[in-house]
Amino acid sequence: MRVLVVEDERVLADAIATGLRREALAVDVAYDGAGALDRAEVNEYDVIVLDRDLPKVHGDEVCKRLVARRYSARIIMLTAAGELDDKVEGLSIGADDYLAKPFAFAELIARVRALGRRAAAPLPPVLERAGIKLDPARREVERDGRPIDLTRKEFAVLEVLLSADGAVVSSEQLLEKAWDEHIDPFTNVVRVTMMTLRKKLGDPPIIETVPGVGYRL
């Protein structure tokens, strides 16, 4: 899942991004509304965590513009304006969820993951295929009942493959969903991560390489 955090308080924005990355999510950060709109022009996000009181372009205006162009990401407003009227206003302009500051980070994670499931075709809370069971909420993976310890990126790649439900996933799609905008598109990080993931999943191999196309589980 790929997330954009839009927050002008840089310490808070970076802390949220770090926490989300620890949950095996790919995260980009914008510190103002204009930067958020610029990133949304070039990247496809599943969820946008959006502060309302932003410089350059107000968060409400960012939300309105994204909704007007039918941008596919789900939007959760994260703001100090937590009164009922504020929540009603935020939801009325197109936000999908609203979380007031201060907040419990565990609740933010749960809401982001719930919105991420709604951003695309509905997915079960636990993904299963070919003897693999992946629980995103608990960050747990099993193969035929055997626990498997994965790095955050290995976990993210496996989650993308399982979510594809047997369809081929290209390297470009994996970079889009499992890494952030700072990754070099010409890097071999996908191939290296796939090698370590296959090794940890064990035999018989279940991740197929489709030459010139991508990978399939």
Indicate the topology.
Blueprint: E1 2-6, H1 10-22, E2 26-30, H2 33-42, E3 47-50, H3 59-68, E4 74-79, H4 84-92, E5 97-100, H5 105-119, E6 127-129, E7 132-135, E8 140-143, E9 146-148, H6 152-163, H7 171-178, H8 189-201, E10 208-210, E11 214-216
Parallel strand pairs: 1-2, 1-3, 3-4, 4-5
Antiparallel strand pairs: 6-7, 7-8, 8-9, 10-11
Helix pairs in contact: 2-3, 6-8
Give a short overview.
By secondary structure, the chain is of the alpha/beta class.
Describe the structure.
The strands form 3 sheets. This protein has a 5-stranded parallel beta sheet with strand order 2-1-3-4-5, sandwiched between helices. A 4-stranded antiparallel beta sheet has the order 6-7-8-9, covered by helices on one side. The chain is of the alpha/beta class and 217 residues long. The chain is 41% helix and 20% strand. It contains 8 helices and 11 strands. The model has no long low-confidence stretch (mean pLDDT 88). The longest helix has 15 residues, at 105-119. The two termini are 18 Å apart.
